[in-house]
Design a protein that fits this description.
The complex is a heterodimer. Chain A is of the alpha+beta class. Helices cover 16% and strands 39% of the residues of chain A. Helices cover 38% and strands 21% of the residues of chain B. In chain B, a hairpin with a 2-residue loop joins strand 22 and strand 23. A six-stranded mixed beta sheet of chain B has the order 18-22-23-21-20-19. Chain B has a five-stranded mixed beta sheet with strand order 10-12-13-15-14. In chain B, strands 24-16-17-26-25 form a five-stranded mixed beta sheet. By secondary structure, chain B is α+β, with helices and mostly antiparallel strands. Chain B has 26 helices and 26 strands. Classes of the chains: A alpha+beta, B alpha+beta. At the A-B interface, strand 4, strand 5 and strand 7 of A face strand 25 and strand 26 of B.
């Protein structure tokens, strides 16, 4: 599935060393796959990657909130990112992955998990590699997108996690991905 | 002293605030007509400790202010002055003022001195009022200790100048006292001239760096009461050789000090600058000074102008020069003799001056002297012999422990003299005081836990099925240990509720004066313990409720007399434990809530329909005052009446998982009852199952659980079902409907009903099954998620999964149950709902 030739590096090694990013002005991004599209998040936000385990549902929560899990004594909500992006929900299997992220909000940092299809790779990207998200019209906000990157002819959408997972209003992104694809296809 | 005093600041602040609390409560107890000396002493001691502490840490604004306070207190203490009611007010204001000063200092901001200056002037005015009568009565017995705190020399009733001979014991530094601080304090009182007495300093080899060998002869030139001086030395008088005599009486007391010479005698001014090599020639400036001391009263000022910078400093050279003032009738030849060995290689001038001219330089010189004493005292740990002989080669501030290596990379330590040096202290941390018995219990528990653990470990190593009973036993023990441990850890956080109550006597006193009401405050159950977090959050609501009781509850004295009550109103604060709750009751014997007025107001603001108004129960009416923006006060006062408050009170209490209710009798008074959980961290829970989900009820809210019967349920127009529970009708919440989940059965016949009570109302919650009862640790959902209606938190069960804790009031709200409606039904069934309020 991966034909990527960009610089990939060992995530864990660089996580422990946070200074890499300042060394050559590049940031590392962890990418994951959802519905055959590749998305990336700043690797410094990533706390850990876990396999899916059943979560305790929260009553009357929106469908994209799968529930809460016990992460070593902390109650962590799990968000299905597929459903955030308006993709079809899929059956969770043993290989379904939860990426636990540390999100900065005005009220402090929150720990949340996102359910994705699979984890893909780690890229070193400089700001020059990044393209600003195209204007998708008034109806679709692109605040949640840090930028777009072409890695080996394949588009990767880098997400602005802090804005995306601001719990007070989990955005409806159903249009974003489809529109982006349209734009990219043109 | 290079000890970083700032590390003690936090302790000082905490102790000072405690002292202020003690002062405040003692002041409240103080009855001006019958002064209890123990109470006055308590106040005095608190003031004195704050003064001493603040002076030590260099918070002079606090120290100065407390000093005036203390002076007045001391006069009251020694029955010289009677305390008046106004004085008490003034003292209370100064407690507030000190609090502000201290918290400003704690936050490292510059305190605002306007208030303290105003109060200080007020105190000084009081102190100036009747010294005449005071001193007359006092003169007869103690001629030397006429009290007059004002250091103004023009006052006739005080004495001076004083000659103070102060030789601290060698251990003085070890007891935490500091001659330097005493000298500084003296300097604040008036002009002083200090002469160190250095003849006790042993040889360098025999010198104990932690002992103090220096004595001081101090001439206090201003006129002041002896008591003021005694006070300065209060902490050290026991371990020191101290005499304070009038300088003009000197001739009578020659035996006091060998060096005590009349201040009126001639004075020699000597300028002595040895050449740099003086130490290498075997001469020793210190020895010369010692000889001079034999001749008379010697004061020394070291000149450090010649001191080179560190790199250029030769440890064996002498760079210092000295200005010496030798008071006494010494002959010039004797002085010359002292300098005989060094005169050739030194710059030396000896001149004679009369005291009159010496006085003209006094102020400036005094400061210099004190500064010089500063230096001496700083190095006094190492002893002055080092300071003088070796300091010749070193900066005077140095610690001198290793005199041969002066070029050690010590940064110029001058900043350390002032502990107030700008240092960003770590963020303010709060602390609690824990009784040692609680800690001991905890340690015992941990010991037991360790034993159980090793027992289980051993059992696990070579486990056979026969040991199963042993294993069970061990696990049981472990469970007990854990629970006990948990309880004792919780107890550490528990504080007696007097922490929250203590502010009320003062508040009631101030407010009752402002409102011209006579009010007595009764505190009951102050020892009831409550979690610290709960305590902090309940403070403001309580203040609000007590204010309300004062302002709206208690009537004016005339009104009270008319209605046949005693003139003095009574407000009672009562706290006690009930089940897993702490109950706080605020009772007043005032006029009670005015039902009609509340109803009118409610109708006016559209809260209820006029037609419904008459059918409302008293509880429902009283409950309305908790609505936002609801106030029946005829006019808004600065005490209360703005209509914000009661709703906030209720919200705060509910945020603590507590409840509040009101009962009232017109003309007799009202009672507000607050129920709070003991702690916020742990909950006794009842696990219930709905379909595949597990939820937890707080055990305290459960009244009973029973098998529900379909035929006992009746449907009410408006969508809410009610259940007939004996002689009441209770609304039903179907949890699976509410939470939109699938349950085992939709029929009520197979389900269980958990009857819970909240706010005096009962609600039946339908669940599939009851599971275990257990203590659960409350985890926040909001920390990483958000508030969920109907859920107060989450917890982790034994198998590691998360279970949600139900929030009863939230459930009721979510279900949209309107109790008015159900009450109407129970009325129709001619059954009164159970009155939960007394």
């Amino acid at each position: 599935m991966q034909t990527v030739t960009a610089t990939s590096a060992d995530a864990s090694e660089n996580m422990s060393d946070g200074s890499i990013s300042t060394m050559n002005d590049s940031n590392q991004y962890l990418t994951f796959i959802m519905a055959n599209e590749e998305y990336g998040v700043d690797i410094l936000c990533v706390q850990e990657i876990r396999g899916w385990e059943s979560a305790t549902p929260i009553p009357n929560a929106p469908p994209n909130i799968k529930g809460v899990i016990n992460l070593r004594g902390t109650i962590v909500p799990i968000v299905d990112l597929r459903q955030c992006f308006g993709m079809e929900a899929i059956e969770y299997t043993a290989v379904t992955v939860v990426i636990v992220l540390k999100v900065q909000t005005e009220k402090g940092s929150r720990v949340m998990g996102i359910v994705v299809d699979a984890v893909s790779d780690v890229y070193n990207l400089t700001p020059e590699d990044m393209k600003a998200p195209p204007d998708l019209g008034d109806s679709v906000s692109t605040d949640y997108i840090r930028g777009l990157v072409n890695v080996d002819e394949k588009m990767v959408i880098l997400l602005e996690i802090d804005k995306l997972l601001n719990m007070d209003e989990l955005p409806d992104l159903s249009e974003v991905s489809s529109k982006l694809m349209e734009v990219a296809g043109q | 002293m290079s000890v970083d005093l700032s590390q003690f600041h936090q302790v000082f602040f905490e102790e000072s605030f405690e002292g202020l609390d003690a002062m405040e409560s003692a002041l409240m107890e103080l009855d001006p007509s019958a002064v209890d000396s123990e109470t006055i002493n308590t106040i005095f001691r608190a003031a004195h400790s704050i003064k001493g502490g603040s002076a030590t840490f260099g918070f002079s604004i606090v120290a100065d202010f407390t000093h005036v306070l203390e002076t007045l207190l001391d006069e009251i203490r020694s029955d010289i002055r009677a305390i008046r009611r106004d004085d008490v007010d003034l003292f209370l204001q100064s407690v507030d003022c000190l609090r502000e000063l201290l918290s400003a200092l704690q936050q490292e901001s510059t305190p605002d001195s306007t208030e303290s200056n105003r109060l200080r002037e007020a105190f000084e005015a009081i102190l100036a009022i009747d010294p005449q009568s005071a001193s007359e009565s006092d003169n007869a017995t103690e001629p030397d200790s006429i009290l007059e705190p004002q250091p103004e020399p023009e006052d006739a009733s005080i004495d001076g100048p004083w000659h103070i001979h102060f030789c601290p014991g060698p251990d003085i530094l070890r007891t935490g006292n500091e001659p330097l601080r005493i000298l500084r304090e003296l300097e604040e009182l008036g002009r002083i001239t200090v002469t160190p007495i250095v003849d006790q300093i042993p040889e360098y080899s025999a010198l104990d760096p932690e002992a103090c060998y220096i004595g001081f002869d101090i001439i206090f030139r201003d006129r002041i009461a002896k008591d003021r001086l005694d006070e300065v030395f209060e902490w050290v008088v026991d371990e020191s050789d101290l005499s304070i005599v009038l300088a003009c009486h000197k001739s009578d007391i020659d035996n006091i000090s060998a060096s005590a010479q009349s201040a009126e005698s001639d004075e020699w001014k000597i300028y002595f600058k040895p050449c740099e090599d003086v130490l290498r020639t075997g001469n020793e400036p210190l020895r010369i000074f010692r000889e001079l001391v034999e001749l008379g009263d010697l004061s020394v000022t070291a000149g450090v102008d010649g001191l080179p910078s560190w790199p250029g400093l030769n440890p064996e050279s002498c760079y210092l020069s000295w200005n010496l003032d030798l008071a006494g009738k010494a002959e010039k030849s004797k002085i010359d003799e002292a300098f005989e060995w060094v005169v050739d290689e030194s710059d030396l001038s000896i001149s004679q001056e009369s005291l009159a001219s010496a006085d003209t330089v006094s102020t400036e010189l005094d400061r210099e002297l004190v500064d010089q004493v500063d230096d001496t005292a700083i190095s006094s740990e190492a002893g002055v012999s080092v300071a003088i002989s070796e300091a010749a080669s070193m900066a005077p501030e140095t610690e001198n422990i290793i005199p041969k290596q002066p070029a050690a990379n010590t940064p110029a330590p001058s900043a350390e003299i002032k502990p107030a040096a700008k240092k960003q202290s770590a963020s303010e941390s709060t602390s609690i005081r824990v009784g040692i018995d609680k800690v001991d219990t905890l340690i015992n528990m941990v010991g037991e836990l360790v034993i159980t653990q090793s027992m289980l470990g051993q059992l696990g190593d070579e486990f056979e099925m026969d040991d199963l009973s042993k294993l069970r036993e061990g696990l049981g023990q472990l469970e007990q240990n854990t629970r006990e441990l948990q309880e004792s850890v919780m107890r550490i956080r528990m504080l007696p509720i007097s922490f929250a109550f203590s502010r009320f006597p003062r508040m009631v006193r101030d407010l009752s004066r402002r409102l011209d009401k006579k009010i007595e405050l009764k505190l009951i159950g102050e020892q009831t313990e409550l979690d610290k977090t709960v305590m902090e959050k309940i403070g403001d609501p309580l203040v609000h409720l007590v204010r309300n009781a004062l302002d709206h509850g208690i009537e004016q004295p005339e009104e009270r007399l008319q209605s046949g009550k005693s003139e003095t109103g009574l407000i009672t604060l009562n706290a006690y434990h009930q089940g897993g709750n702490v109950v706080i009751e605020i009772t007043d014997d005032g006029k009670g809530l005015d039902r009609d007025r509340i109803v009118n107001k409610a109708v006016e603001s559209g809260l209820v329909q006029e037609s419904d108004a008459s059918s409302l129960t008293n509880e429902q009416v009283y409950d309305m005052i908790f609505q936002a923006g609801f106030s029946t006060a005829q006019e808004v006062s600065d005490v209360s009446g703005r209509g914000v408050g009661m709703d906030v009170v209720r919200r705060n209490i509910q945020a603590l998982n507590g409840s509040v209710e009101i009962s009232s009798t017109a003309g007799k008074g009202s009672r507000i009852t607050i129920r709070l959980p003991l702690t916020l961290a742990i909950l006794d829970g009842q696990l219930v199952r709905v379909g595949s989900h597990t939820y937890i009820f707080p055990l305290v809210s459960i009244v009973e659980s029973l098998q529900s019967k379909d035929e006992r349920v009746s449907r009410v127009a408006g969508g809410c079902d009610v259940f007939q529970l004996r002689d009441e009708y209770v609304p039903i919440i179907r949890l699976h409907k509410l939470f939109n989940i699938s349950a085992d059965t939709k029929s009520l016949d197979d389900a269980l009903m958990v009857v819970v009570e909240y706010d005096g109302e009962k609600v039946g919650v339908v669940v599939d099954d009851l599971q275990a009862q257990q203590q659960v640790v409350i985890k926040s959902l909001e920390q990483n998620y958000q508030r969920v209606e109907g859920i107060s938190g989450a917890t982790i069960l034994g198998d590691g999964t998360v279970a949600l804790i139900l929030d009863i009031p939230g459930l009721v709200k979510l279900a949209g149950i309107n109790h008015q409606q159900t009450n109407v039904i129970s009325l129709a069934g001619s059954h009164q709902p159970l009155q939960s309020t007394a």
